[in-house]
């Protein structure tokens, strides 16, 4: 459900109800399924593989003999630009599992490569996401089903919030960030650009995550993180009570 700051018609009536997904990684497939959930299977035209479908697509072909992935056709960059470079479909940036770089870094690179070609990355807010009033969501951000964004939150360009991610009041999510499934961001948290927050990770209130930092699955962050710092595990448990050191 969408709060009063983003009317249901905003970003849906003006943006095409069809999309191509750049990348063939797991996040690309999740985004494709989520977009199809709102716009129908015909709304996802296919994937754009980098550098070419034959190099990067999973085995399989369409009925016409073209490469396919996840039941949808896979296009090369040149073909995709020829078909949709002039509009008619949203360009949604996914991921590439073989790229050898973090997902936010890859997404940032693709985002700027599109801009250099005069193209614009699109975004969408799933109809089953909860985005409450007073939020600021960049048009290129992607918010998937059951994500929950409280008031006075800012979500930057090309950021992705996966299902059940929760962002509390007065927090900000920077450009190209990736909040994985069930990531929990407490209030007044500042997340700078290109940060990954893993599945079931928790950010305590008031912390700042600097650019490129990475929070592993299930980790609990109780202090600020330096640029490109990684927190991979939960902090060790401590005894509780008067005898605790």
Keywords:
single chain, 245 residues, Rossmann fold, 7-stranded parallel sheet, 6-stranded parallel sheet, 4 helices
Molecular structure report:
With 245 residues, the chain is of the alpha/beta class. The protein contains four helices and 23 strands. 16% of the residues lie in helices and 22% in strands. The protein is globular, with a radius of gyration of 19 Å.
Proper CATH architecture of the domain at 19-122: 3-Layer(aba) Sandwich
N- to C-terminal distance: 47 Å
Biggest sheet strand order reads: 6-9-12-15-18-21-23
Structural class given helices, strands, pairing? Answer: alpha/beta
Tally of DSSP β-strands: 23
Shape: globular
Protein name: Sugar O-acyltransferase, sialic acid O-acetyltransferase NeuD family
Organism: Marivibrio halodurans
Family: Belongs to the transferase hexapeptide repeat family.
Quick synopsis:
The protein is an alpha/beta fold and 245 residues long.
What's the structural blueprint in terms of helices and strands?
Blueprint lengths: L18 E4 L3 H14 L4 E5 L4 H4 L11 E2 L2 E4 L1 H8 L5 E4 L9 H14 L7 E2 L4 E2 L4 E2 L4 E2 L4 E2 L4 E2 L4 E2 L4 E2 L4 E2 L4 E2 L4 E2 L4 E2 L4 E2 L4 E2 L4 E2 L4 E2 L4 E2 L8 E2 L14
Parallel strand pairs: 1-2, 1-5, 2-4, 6-9, 7-10, 8-11, 9-12, 10-13, 11-14, 12-15, 13-16, 14-17, 15-18, 16-19, 17-20, 18-21, 19-22, 21-23
Antiparallel strand pairs: 3-4
